[in-house]
Amino acid sequence: MTELEAYPNDATFVSIDIAMQTFDVLVSPHSKKRYRLKITNDRAGHDQLIRDLEAIGKPVVVGFEATGNYHRTIAWRLLDAGFTTHLISSVALARTREAMHNSWDKNDPKDAQVMLHLLQTGQVQRYIDPMMNNTNDWQELSKTHEIISKNKTETLHRLKTHYWPLYFPEIDRFRHGSRKEWFFKFLYQFPIPASITALSKETFAAQAAPLMGRKVRKNALIGDIYATAQESSALPVALDSAAVIMYRIVIMQMCRLIQSRDEIEQQANELLGGNQDFVRLQQIPGIGPIHAMTILAEAGNLRRFGHHRQFLKYCGFDLATHQSGQFRGQSKISKYGNARLRKAFWMAGQVAVKMNENSFKDKYLRYTAKDRDDRDLNRKAYTAVAAKVARVAYSVIKHETDYRPFYGAR
């Protein structure tokens, strides 16, 4: 994104190489020799940098590379002080460093010099601060939900690959999805077949029924579990053994993760329920409250993009092709954009194609019509669907219109 034309003629350019404890700062005043500063990543260092920049008395344009979350505090302080801030792509920084220095060598002063070059030539994008745009809470909910979901998946795999094969190999067939909290509450009380067969069928049914969900066909399910426990090939461990105590700890961890995930989803609905963009996004097949919140948290105000291609590029869905002379490589998505946005649309697309009739499923079926079993073709189809979900999301927010099924299918 080029923003060179927006810079004042007498602007001072400042590049900052972010690190955990110190920042390397390169200042290039208008018509003067550039100079370097080294500041600490704390309140005193931030205050000193702001005072030095304010003392210049001219417009200041600051550029930096996103580095973990270490850039967030200094970026907010600079914006709060009234300075213009820009984000510099890590990929652009690496490629330009190689071109300028003919080397892979990397160090902080050199990075600051390269960033200053990119800033002065306008090869940057405007930094959108979550605090300034009131999206910080949305981002934290979205990121925490992602962390909990990953932990839940890891815990489930631990149960499936370690504990269940040893202590209740047949139980997994009664689990229908990872959102069924009742299953893990039941499993905590009855972790091994012996805990079931030690009871009569009637006593087991009386104790198990309150643990099961309301929509579960309890009588048939309870009878099936009881019969399965009687024929189980599980190891004959005691219910009060250390192994089963460890097993129950992992089951309880799974229960807590499911509860935390549900709480975050409820919080997302309460926090964004009155946001019209949040409501409209959930009209799109495959997009639920968490994906809608992630899109708004990561993209900010989608209306700032002049065309859907700009938004697709921001997500990393734009096509890139390697070409040299007569050789032209295969066009692929660049993946240089926001990875969390791209993941949200990818997952939404996978859900959409499994739903009833909608334009996304129709696009997927037309794309894979030649060979449904071709894995490469299926991957490309999912990518095309994800990009289409992103286009539709941009459109309903940009034009403030509700989603219309099958409108503009292509």
Summarize this entry quickly:
By secondary structure, this protein is of the alpha+beta class.
Summarize the structure in words:
The protein has 410 residues and is α+β, with helices and mostly antiparallel strands. It contains 16 helices and ten strands. The strands form three sheets. It has a six-stranded mixed β-sheet, sandwiched between helices. A two-stranded antiparallel ribbon has the order 7-10. It has a two-stranded antiparallel ribbon with strand order 8-9.
Q: What low-confidence regions span 5 or more consecutive residues with pLDDT below 50?
A: 1-5
Distance between the termini: 28 Å
Order of helices and strands: EEEHEHEHHEHHHHHHHHHEEEEHHH
Quick one: how many beta strands? 10
Radius of gyration, taken over Cα atoms and rounded to an integer in Å: 27 Å
Work out the oligomeric state of the chains in this entry. Answer: single chain
Number of helical segments with 4 or more residues? 16
Structural class: alpha+beta
Averaged pLDDT: 88
Which descriptor suits the 3D outline? elongated
Strand content: 5-15%
Blueprint (SSEs and pairs):
Elements: E1 12-17, E2 22-28, E3 35-40, H1 43-54, E4 60-65, H2 70-80, E5 84-88, H3 90-101, H4 108-120, E6 125-126, H5 136-167, H6 181-189, H7 193-197, H8 201-208, H9 218-230, H10 242-272, H11 276-281, H12 289-299, H13 308-315, E7 319-320, E8 323-324, E9 327-328, E10 332-333, H14 339-352, H15 359-367, H16 375-398
Helix pairs in contact: 3-4, 5-10, 5-12, 6-10, 8-9, 12-14, 13-16, 14-16, 15-16
